[in-house]
């Protein structure tokens, strides 16, 4: 997930070793029955994200597909951060207009004054108290599907349908280990051995995914599920960031025909491509990870026009939203800067 570091000499690589992600999160849940003390309540919580972060991007997509924009407001942090926290530098006066804070760190410390770990996005914040509720990104997106059903839009898709949950969980587990986190294991490897192990594990899994998706349009079942959301946010960042910056360079996504067509299919689906800000994505990785890219120079490429080319995946059948419907366009205040996306 979006980890804090520093924009001047931050440490992400473990010298001589293998990258290990701290997966201890604030596990409090917002549930329909309020069993953790935070009941589902429209207007009470604010989702804080950065469009740069793949883990936060999942929540942006799921919230959009389910039509929860009116129920859960969204604050967008800037694409870079310093050693303390993500900041709201996109907002007037550098403050989130709802929470009134300059740094996401303030919401974490409001609940846990001695919070010992990184200040991460996505995070759900309780607006009345200004306290972070949870940053457990994997559970957060599932809870949007299962706990907020009373506030889903009419025609919302089933992203985590009960009959498919075991298979979705199984696919998600290997995709997380080898792909979502696998690109980071390549990029932050501190030794040649650790890098090569991560590299082979990543591309072996991408080959496995290519085989799986060669004859079926989506990862599980015949409609988009949580599994597709989780894979997409890594694939969409592959050529702009992971191929070069993280040395995941056996092939570009554009050189993997099945995965490239699959990614374009999703990108052109309402709720996916319209959440992607390529400028924020590139600025985050290349400016923040100074131990990998000391100059902070951000590459101008790649050309984005290919994202809008025909993918022909509809020939495999499937219905993007199952028995549901496409979401409406994003609210004007949440639209990506047209200069940062090919979807102009």
Automatic annotation (TrEMBL):
Question: Which positions are catalytic residues?
Answer: 53 (nucleophile), 184 (proton donor/acceptor)
For this protein, the record's InterPro entries field holds: Glutathione-S-Trfase_C-like, Glutathione-S-Trfase_C_sf, Glutathione_S-Trfase, Glutathione_S-Trfase_N, GST_Omega-like_C, GST_Omega/GSH
The family database entries (PROSITE patterns) matched by this protein are listed as: GST_CTER (PS50405)
Keywords, A to Z, come to:
Transferase
> Where do the GST C-terminal domain residues begin and end?
161-288
Task: Fetch the Gene3D superfamilies from UniProt.
Answer: 1.20.1050.10, Glutaredoxin (3.40.30.10)
Site annotation (Lowers pKa of active site Cys) points to 242, 285
Q: Which amino acid positions bind glutathione, per UniProt?
A: 86
Region entry Disordered: which residue ranges? 309-344
Q: Which Pfam families match?
A: GST_C_2, GST_N_2
Molecular-function GO terms, alphabetical: glutathione transferase activity
Q: Which GO terms describe its cellular component?
A: cytoplasm
What's the protein here called? Answer: Putative glutathione S-transferase
